[in-house]
Amino acid sequence: MQQASLYTPTVSRPVYILGLSFSYHDSGVALLKDGEVVFAAQEERYTRKKQDDRLPVSAVAHALQFANITIEDISAVGFYEKPLLKFFDRLLPTYIKVWPRGLLSFLHAMQDWMHQKLWIPQNIRKELKYTGPISYVQHHESHAASAYFLSGFPDATIVTVDGVGEWATTTIGKGNGTEMELKKEIHFPHSLGLLYSAITYYLGFRVNSAEYKVMGLAPYGKPAYMDQMRKLIDVKEDGSFALTMDYFDYEYGLKMTGKKMEELFGHPRRTPESSLEQFHKDVARSLQEITEEVMMKIVTQAKKICPSRYLCLAGGVALNCVANGKILRSGLFEDIFIQPASGDAGGALGVALCLWHRMFHGRRREKMEHAFLGNAYTNENIRAFLDAEKLPYEHLDDAALIDTVSSLLEGENVIGWFQGRMEFGPRSLGNRSIIADARNKENWQKVNLKIKFRESFRPFAPTVLEEKAHEWFDLQTESPYMLLVADTLPAKRQEIPAVTHVDGSARIQTIRRNQNPRYYDLIKCFEGKTGCPVIINTSFNVRGEPIVESPKDALHCFLHTYMDYLVLGNIILSKKKMPPERMQETEAYLKQFSLD
Ligand SMILES: [Fe+2]
Fold first, then answer.
1. Quick one: pLDDT band at residue 542, thresholds 50, 70, 90?
2. Quick one: which of 242, 286, 422, 510 could link to 225 by a disulfide (CB 3.0–4.6 Å)?
3. Cα–Cα dist 346/357, whole Å
4. In 318-397, which residue ranges form alpha helices assigned H by DSSP?
5. How many Å lie between the centroid of ligand 1 and the Cα of residue 160?
């Protein structure tokens, strides 16, 4: 790290810190002003390339524009990992260890490094026209900081679990005031995240992207392959674990698993997009069981080594909301904070927060109360866009908007709901969401097949008014980031079938008015009309595309699906009122999907 003297702030000028994560997957940017998060976004939303890993030039431009500053106002830039440590300390020795098996993989990695990763600071300076200091924080420290420094806890046990950073794949640490230290690590190639990804690959889904599909598939299966799982991973009582590397190809190959894995399970790898059999569901369930077991052991050990009443979780595996729900219900901790951007994009937040505390010795900021940290569009922006598109719309005042949309929600309408600042992290939380009536079972199929064009096994998440959550779900705490799974109460399961999974569980988002007044008011009004404080909330995108960022993206999604209404700020569009020539475009596009 750079010397602290480089960063001494002037009295009159606020300290702006820019955190960056890129070059692996899921680029992100976070901007702090005097330690407060003023903006955070993923690059994919702007470039429309899912999981874009390039230097987040567009997201940085939006961050600067949002804060009304230029790059010259940035006091320090932080990068979310240590690239040279990763290359010389892990990648190179790993390739030497498995040589010559990893030749092809090594050549790919070298090409990537020579073109991009070795030149990270040079690229930051060149692309962003930045001349100030650049600091680096280790990958898992970035994850840990993204949770701990935004938890609002005075101290905490910290656990991070992901695929891999430089070396670490799992860490245990302690936060105390403005200090944070990682005390224990498990190193590559032993990785719970890579085990999950390897089985995701074996089940024919996309790695680093579709792990949550495997989690959604698990409730349909039985844990019939636990013996095989225990051959893949040896777990000790203290939560430490080792993978049996014979079964995995990721150390030296261009794929995650090979013949040995197929022999272990007695089935070939599932061809992507082919039908899902009971076998695949059983493997998914077994993987989920072992993941929960390992996570429980890790957090139990973490509490012993770094005791606190509070737990902070981050890293890709912290997006496993079934495991999170189990940890919460264990009662091991009084309260838990999980960073909503727990994937690598969230590392941008973490590195920026590390710099704020370590370089500038700044005071701690309050708890992160919501994830609406991206950019917004005004009604004027939206109207100008729609006028240029020559599309009919209605512009309603706030009260009429809530009343109209809550009425439209009753029954089978599916509505694109685009409001205010974009969410940071992989979940739509009510500003870039597709919403529908959770009481209507048909809506599950309708949204899956006619809007998302995807596999129908996955359930939808509910948003519920926070004060009513305990009346509908077995949940006694808030879950504002859709990161906890709990059971729908048996008496309510028939009432909200579209959000209740086959095992009775639901992936819950709670909403409090001060987190998002308009979204809260909408659901409150819907409850007044129907008696139900729960709606379907799913991400506003079509299969294979990032979540929408702009009115243009939202309109594209509206016109290329069977969505019934689109609400952009205070402006509402009805599919029935779209001009015939635009509908021809829609019908031509939709013909490519076989819809029964
Ligand atoms: Fe990570």
1. confident
2. 286
3. 17
4. 321-330, 347-358, 379-389
5. 9
Q: How far apart are CA 454 and CA 73, in angstroms?
A: 44
CA–centroid distance, residue 444 to ligand 1 (Å): 32
Q: May I ask the CATH architecture of the domain 186-338?
A: 2-Layer Sandwich (3.30)
Specify the pLDDT at position 209. Answer: 81
Neighbours of 398 (CB within 10 A): 11
d(CA 335, CA 328): 8
Question: How much distance in Å is there from the Cα of 590 to the middle of ligand 1?
Answer: 37
DSSP-derived secondary structure letter, 43: T
> Ligand 1 centre from 26 Cα, in Å?
10
Amino acid at 210: A
Q: Where are the alpha helices (DSSP H) in 331-476?
A: 347-358, 379-389, 398-409, 442-446, 469-472
Q: What is the CATH number of domain 379-590?
A: 3.90.870.20
CA–CA dist 306, 284 (Å, integer): 32
Amino acid letter, residue 469: A
Count other Cβ atoms within 10 Å, centred on residue 119: 15
> Where is pLDDT greater, at 277 or 116?
277
Q: For residue 354, how far is its CA from the centre of ligand 1 (angstroms)?
A: 16
Phi/psi of residue 95, nearest 5 degrees: -65, -35
Does residue 596 register a pLDDT over 50?
A: no
Fold equal for 186-338 and 379-590 = no
- The residues, any chain, with a CB within 8 Å of residue 168's CB and separated by 6 or more, are 138, 139, 140, 160, 182, 185, 186, 187, 188
Which residues have a beta carbon within 5 Å of ligand 1, which is an ion? Answer: 162, 344
- Give the distance (Å) from ligand 1 centre to CA of residue 570: 38
Rounded to an integer, what distance in angstroms lies between the CA atom of residue 190 and that of residue 195? 8
In the sheet where 505-511 sits, what is the strand order?
394-395, 571-574, 565-568, 415-418, 432-437, 534-539, 461-465, 505-511, 484-487
User: Could you give the CA distance from residue 230 to residue 264 in angstroms, rounded to a whole number?
Assistant: 11
Domain residue limits, the chain: 4-150+342-358, 186-338, 379-590
CA 143 to ligand 1 center in whole angstroms: 7
CB-CB contact of 442 with 413 (8 Å): no
Ligand 1 mean position to 100 CA, how many Å? Answer: 28
**Class of the 4-150+342-358 domain?**
alpha beta
Q: Which two tokens stand for residue 280?
A: 């695949």
